[in-house]
From TrEMBL, chain A:
<dbReference type="GO" id="GO:0046872">
    <property type="term" value="F:metal ion binding"/>
</dbReference>
<feature type="region of interest" description="Disordered">
    <location>
        <begin position="490"/>
        <end position="524"/>
    </location>
</feature>
<keyword id="KW-0812">Transmembrane</keyword>
<dbReference type="GO" id="GO:0019646">
    <property type="term" value="P:aerobic electron transport chain"/>
</dbReference>
<feature type="transmembrane region" description="Helical">
    <location>
        <begin position="351"/>
        <end position="372"/>
    </location>
</feature>
<keyword id="KW-1003">Cell membrane</keyword>
<comment type="similarity">
    <text>Belongs to the cytochrome ubiquinol oxidase subunit 1 family.</text>
</comment>
<feature type="transmembrane region" description="Helical">
    <location>
        <begin position="95"/>
        <end position="119"/>
    </location>
</feature>
<feature type="transmembrane region" description="Helical">
    <location>
        <begin position="131"/>
        <end position="150"/>
    </location>
</feature>
From TrEMBL, chain B:
<keyword id="KW-1003">Cell membrane</keyword>
<comment type="similarity">
    <text>Belongs to the cytochrome ubiquinol oxidase subunit 2 family.</text>
</comment>
<dbReference type="GO" id="GO:0016682">
    <property type="term" value="F:oxidoreductase activity, acting on diphenols and related substances as donors, oxygen as acceptor"/>
</dbReference>
<keyword id="KW-0813">Transport</keyword>
<keyword id="KW-0812">Transmembrane</keyword>
<keyword id="KW-0349">Heme</keyword>
<keyword id="KW-1133">Transmembrane helix</keyword>
<dbReference type="GO" id="GO:0070069">
    <property type="term" value="C:cytochrome complex"/>
</dbReference>
<keyword id="KW-0249">Electron transport</keyword>
Amino acid sequence: MNLALAPETLARWQFGITTVYHFLFVPLTISLAAITAGLETAWVRTGKEKYFHATKFWGKLFLINIAMGVVTGIVQEFQFGMNWSDYSRFVGDVFGAPLAMEALLAFFFESTFIGLWIFGWDKLPKKIHCACIWIVAVGTILSSYFILAANSWMQHPVGYVIDKATGKAQLTDIWAVMTQNTTLVVVFHTLTAAFLTGGAFVVGIASLHLWRAKRKQLRGEEPGEKQRHQIGAMRTSLRVGLVVAVIAGLGTAISGDSLGKVMFEQQPMKMAAAEALWETKAPAPFSVFAVGDVSKGHNSVEIEIPGLLSFLSHNNFSDAVPGINDIAAQEAARYGGKPEDYIPSIFMTFWGFRLMIGFGMTSFVAALIGLWTTRKKFWLAPQFRTGENEVPRLMLTRTREMSPFFTTWSWRIGILTMGFPLIANSFGWIFTEMGRQPWAVYGLMKTGNAVSPGVSQAEVLTSMGIFTLLYGILAVVEVKLLVKYATAGPDTDEKPPTKDPRLRLPSPGAGEPEDADKPMTFAY
Amino acid sequence: MHLHDLWFLLIAVLWTGYFFLEGFDFGIGVLTKLLARDRTERRVLINTIGPVWDGNEVWLITAAGATFAAFPDWYATLFSGFYLPFLLILVCLILRGVAFEYRHKRAGERWQLNWEHAIFWCSLVPAFAWGVVFANIVRGVPIGRDKNFAGDVLDLLNPYALLGGALTLVLFTFHGAVFATLKTVGDIRHRARSRATVLGMTSGVLGVTFLGWTQIESGNGRSLVALIVAGAALIAALAMNHFGREGWTFAFSGVTVAAVFALVFLALFPDVMPSSLDPAWNLTAANAASSPYTLKIMTWVAVPMTPLIIGYQAWTYWVFRKRIGTQHIPAPAPAPAA
């Protein structure tokens, strides 16, 4: 059989396509839920309309996004059984538990309370309505915890024994699975990256509106009343997005560093591959750029920062970091086979790692600069301060504004930055999953042994084709909708509900007759 | 009682709960073309399940996840063996979910019509496919010594399974029509009621044939009880529908759906997937189950959570208890000026 079309290869491609696609929506869902919840809380507490309009606006974009996240998530749960049945048999005793917990403890909350939130604007008292979106937000975070605990077990299996009779993994300590350092660090890293993604998304769209308004002003058009309200809502959103992105970006860097150290210990091959570090070195340098040849086992061109890799793995600049060739030889001696069987794709891991850090940190730096230059009052001469409903000036120092050229480019980068964390997230997962190869469960089960033996090549080709086509079409539809709703901006004519509806009517059905035929405030 | 027997019961409850809830969701989807006369009426129907369909669908995620955790071999054999039916169901659930959320987000005729087609077909197809899947489970499929499915997709398309598919499709549509009588007001409510009578009687005919066949081929004393309950509940539902007692009709149509799946699971037990090749290769609740330790942990999670979930989901239905008629449907959302 043609190796490129081997069932294992096809199943991996399908898993890769569907999972990377699913994870475009996941981080946005996690962070936009919390950001929307925060904005609604601000509205409930202060009664300011700009918070209401911002809540509605980001809430709409959140809903367009979560719809895709939910439906592509079902595929994830089904395809373990469909395409990886031998894997499912082997790990089900351990891996199934967090998955079932995710459904019972997180998905039900998310999906039930999102319905209440969407349709409940005129049915629920403000505070209860706001509580609904908080429950959704907490649900998304819990859900990520459970699924990452399951993934961490594949990266670093703990709390199990291999049953002698069946040869399958058997859970002995759920607490170990849920609280091992891999799980905790990965959860921290994924959640901070999710908030960086959402923060950058908000920054990008708010920048789009503010820069558009600014250009109109530069052309001499004065904003109308409605536009001024929109600018107000977008300015608040921009600041929220910047703060979220800066804090989360810092958290991503810190947690990424911790995760790196955990990986150096638990999966040295992945980290050596991330660095294309072929030979063990002490002190080990950090490679900025490298071009290598897998078959020859070395790099032909490289640019390095001396000692940095030693620092990243051991917190000092001199300790040895094991290289790919040594680790591969060790693994071959331990698990059998040839050393090259244990080397993941160096090209993908090396560049995946760099693109993850590069794109993630670029949006962090952009947010940091934005947070400083769009400040409201701090260290700002009074004549440069702008009103609540005005586009902020980009101020470098107390009295010095950015030049027009840099102002233009700053806003443009602000808009572009919303895509960067999405790219970083995708490459982060591609790196972490491909870097674990040839293992599906590190040290226990190889990916080649994990596929469904009964599923034919034709079946996998069919499903992969259908998913790719369907996801492609839906991507176009989703992006068009997002663009339409994002560029339309908040509907500042909409009036927030003035009085809370009563949950209980005086007597069933009797209610308020004049309201009985009132149209729903929201309908599908 | 072994823990794996308790978990067989819990899995049965989760799947049955899923079909009770998404059963009427699918039914409503099918009725958007069978009952609604125009777009406003279609929107009335869609909005009866608007706030709840997503929560209902989580019962499927939970049923599948719990099957994975409690019976890894059952999950692995079923999902890899029934590869193409599950692919079809997945595609439909994806399109249907997106259709509910996106249909109203643009005003264009073409846009709205396409999503309405999606809602109809992607409700109809899974309603049928689930019947085919569960009929095949109870009938037995070629499962080899290694617990893997050894047949192909044509093995799944036998007359018995197709009859099972027809039954779930019509029964879910009946359940949906009854739900519509309970949740709508105006002309559509009355038409839903008379449509329910026809659908209920058709379900009766299909039910007698399919469930009778099941009882003779794979039944036992316990499943006979479920068969009688299903029949009695359907008759009671039809009678209550005749007298216009909508709440009771819905309760009984729900009991009918639940009893049909109870029959399937009672006929199965203690097997979970019998092999048509050799009874020695049957997957059973005992040989497909996870370790007692895993089942114990899962029990600790499921036992307090399930009533809580049922509680807050019930509250959701209470919040949205008001009937919906054409007068409640707002004008199509004004497209945001881009």
